[in-house]
Design goal:
Helix content: 55-70%
Cofactor: Fe(2+)
Bound molecules: stearoyl-coenzyme A, zinc ion
Membrane topology: Multi-pass membrane protein
Largest sheet: 2 strands, antiparallel
Number of strands: 2
Radius of gyration: 22 Å
Order of helices and strands: HHHEHHHHHHHHHHHEHH
Transmembrane segments: 40-58, 70-89, 182-202, 208-228
Structural class: mainly alpha
Oligomer: single chain
Mean pLDDT: 89
Subcellular location: Membrane
GO molecular function, one term: iron ion binding
């Protein structure tokens, strides 16, 4: 690293201590848990099954079965990222009928409850972030924000403030209403039966198909999704706003198809890229939406201007921004030199 950059990081550290203290959301008050034992047992069994499925995936399954599991990971992942998250919860772009149908199918393979319910919880997560009205309030710790919130009854604040979320836009979509109405039939078919059966077409056993392409793939996608609520609210940098918990994390982004740039996403939730720098290797969802836009299935892609981002980085960022963070550091160096 060149010497001027080393000095720069030191100055950043020094100058940070002289700045106003960063405001971090307070930890939540103690609460009484109403554990839902049915969910505890189901999730424990699923995770045990997934460990066995992971073993079969690595050691026993046919190559075609392994590839199919990865294909299902990408499809069901897009059903969450490009569908439930960027299209339905945030409306960061618009989609024509064929794409809405495709994403609903992908979303059902992911089994994270109906897209209507997913989007309702997610809108609460953004509006009431890090409070008890946020379903996976990250101030309650890693475990709660990762999976614990699915093992207990929801906080009364969620139900009390739930009416402030307008869902009329999504309820007006007949495809989403259809998915919710028939979820109890569609979900087992898409998430478990189809993934178990298809590998038998190339000679795989139903047993391997079930544990590899249904159970292991499902639990894997669940856990990487949950990492956005847990790890991406905990460990990483905050180039856009240092006063909130969400962070930028490339390792998470790699496995969640581009959803790990969470500091940016909480500051600019309407950007269809959910990130500033569109590095395709870390943002497969952006590549997918761009491709859909090229064939005319996606349109009105929303993004944020460079000027708006730059202003925000300079006003509330933690100084780690690749471009304007360094400028801030250089200014601090200049200031320090002038004082000396
Ligand atoms: C799953 C979801 O895993 C994961 C979501 C993760 C989100 C991540 C976001 C990160 C950003 C995107 C990154 C994507 C990366 C993807 C990468 C992919 C490669 N507003 O829920 P109930 C009211 S699901 C307003 O039963 P309980 C409402 O009246 C896994 N009102 O509460 C409701 O009735 P209704 C599979 C609300 O009884 C009533 O309360 N699914 C709201 O306390 C009752 O609601 C499961 O395992 C709201 N937000 O039960 C199921 N919420 O619905 C797990 C509730 O009729 N869930 N109300 O209107 C459950 O079993 C239960 O929900 C419970 C709570 C036990 C957790
Ligand atoms: Zn978040
Ligand atoms: Zn979001």
């Amino acid at each position: 690293m060149p010497p001027h950059q080393q000095t720069a990081s030191w100055v950043l550290y020094e100058s940070d201590t002289s700045k106003d203290a960063t405001i971090v959301p307070p930890s939540a008050e103690k609460r009484k848990w109403q554990i839902v034992w049915r969910n505890v047992i189901i999730f424990a069994a699923l995770h045990l099954g997934a460990v066995y499925g992971g073993y079969l995936f690595l050691m026993k399954a046919m190559w075609a079965t392994r590839l199919f599991a990865v294909f299902l990971y990408l499809c069901s992942g897009l059903g969450i990222t490009a569908g439930a998250h960027r299209l339905w919860a945030h409306k960061s772009y618009k989609a024509r009928l064929p794409l809405r149908i495709l994403l609903t199918v992908f979303n059902t393979i992911a089994f994270q409850d109906s897209a209507l319910d997913w989007a309702r919880d997610h809108r609460m997560h953004h509006k009431y972030s890090e409070t008890d009205a946020d379903p996976h309030n990250a101030t309650r710790g890693f475990f709660f924000s990762h999976v614990g919130w699915l093992l207990v009854r929801k906080h009364s604040e969620i139900k009390a403030k739930g009416h402030t979320i307008d869902m009329s836009d999504l309820k007006a979509d007949p495809i989403l209403r259809f998915q919710k109405k028939y979820y109890v039939y569609l979900m087992p078919l898409a998430c478990f039966i189809m993934p178990s059966y298809v590998p038998t077409l190339w000679g795989e056993s139903l047993w391997n198909g079930y544990f590899v392409c249904a159970i292991f793939r499902y639990v894997y996608v669940l856990n990487v999704t949950w990492l956005v609520n847990s790890a991406a609210h905990k460990w990483g940098s905050k180039p856009y706003d240092k006063n909130i918990n969400p962070v930028e994390t490339k390792p998470v982004s790699l496995v969640v198809l581009g959803e790990g740039f969470h500091n940016y996403h909480h500051v600019f939730p309407w950007d269809y890229k959910t990130a500033e720098l569109g590095n395709y290797s870390l943002n497969f969802t952006k590549l997918f939406i761009d491709t859909m836009a090229k064939i005319g299935w996606a349109y009105d892609l929303k993004t944020v201007s460079t000027e708006v981002i730059e202003k925000r980085v300079k006003r509330t960022g933690d100084g780690s921004h690749e471009e304007w963070g360094y400028e801030e550091i250089h200014d601090s160096v200049k200031e320090k030199l002038c004082q000396d």
